[in-house]
Amino acid sequence: MPDLILASASPRRRELLARLGIKPARVAPSDIDETPAKAELPRDYAMRMAREKAVAAADNSAFVLAGDTVVAAGRRILPKADDEATARQCLELLSGRRHRVLSAIALRSPDGSLRERLSETQVRFKRLSDDEIAAYLAGGEWHGKAGGYAIQGSAEGLIAWIAGSHSGVVGLPLFETRALLRAAGFAIG
């Protein structure tokens, strides 16, 4: 049975894979341009990123699993927050409203075939006060996170409602990942 390579540096994706009893043989993050194309819709962007990451880490002796998670407010793709100002803008935009989290996965098989799945989750934050936003930002969980928050941390206490895959919001939709791996012939319980 060929090994599995995870085309992601995300420790959360490794932790989520472990819940399925899978430890990747290797982690090979893909260094690709993640700039959205002009007028690219969030769903198309997420799928394209997962595909490109899987192809960039291609290895004909192993399965390569890649993923991408996008937070979208309407047609707008929210950035990964690399600074506090960006995280604040995201949280202010998401406060009291529903948004979508699109988690795309792509699996490249040793024979070169590519399979893809997408998980779409609806999330609604409570209306956030300035003090709640400041407290969340002070914790630093937002750094590097799409939409400026990490649902697996203290932000979970600010979420009023979720419909869909919690693991997808974290970064790897486990139901879809398990189905994709099984369909490709990767041995999984």
UniProtKB/TrEMBL annotation:
Gene Ontology cellular component terms for the protein in this record: cytoplasm
CC cofactor: a divalent metal cation
Subcellular location: Cytoplasm
GO BP terms, alphabetized: nucleotide metabolic process
Database matches in InterPro entries: ITPase-like_fam, Maf-like
Record-marked site positions (Important for substrate specificity): R12, T69, Q152
Leading EC class: hydrolase
An example molecular function term from Gene Ontology annotations: UTP diphosphatase activity
Keyword Hydrolase attributed: yes
Catalytic activity: UTP + H2O = UMP + diphosphate + H(+); dTTP + H2O = dTMP + diphosphate + H(+)
Main subcellular location of this protein, as a coarse class: cytoplasm
CDD domains per record: Maf (cd00555)
Family: Belongs to the Maf family. YhdE subfamily.
HAMAP family found in the cross-reference section: Maf
Functional summary from the UniProt entry: Nucleoside triphosphate pyrophosphatase that hydrolyzes dTTP and UTP. May have a dual role in cell division arrest and in preventing the incorporation of modified nucleotides into cellular nucleic acids.
Protein name, per record: dTTP/UTP pyrophosphatase
UniProt organism field: Tsuneonella dongtanensis
